[in-house]
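Annex B.
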Amino acid sequence: MFDITTDIVKTLFVNENNLPALEQFMLEYFRSSLENTVNDIMAYELTAFLDYEKYARSDNANCRNGSYSRKIDTKFGSITVKIPRDRLGEFYTSFLPKYKRRDELISSPNSRHAKQLNLEVLLGGFLYGKKIKIHYRF
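Mutator family transposase: predicted structure tokens.
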């Protein structure tokens, strides 16, 4: 995961030619953050299903059984999701439906959000006194 520091952002804003680099950096930052968040949510979902924390002893016959990977296409790029499994095969995540490989916003032709990512909104409009208006078209 990336750490956005003041020095990184200042370096990217030194001149206007760095705006494509900033756009690429922000997209990669959001993509990696989304990937980590989805993986954390699904790990927590398995913990709630099994009703005990990882590495804790339990009298439950069902236990963790690793995970399998799935690639999901999102508007920030492809993410790799680790879907946890249980020993008895009873766990199914409700967060990510089976066979889902694409974010609905991208596959929906009517969604204007999927066609254009406005980083001005994501960054809050102003950063270091410069107004940012970057549009990323998919």
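Residues 6-101 form one domain. Residues 105-138 have pLDDT under 50 and may be disordered. Further annotation is deferred to the next reporting cycle.
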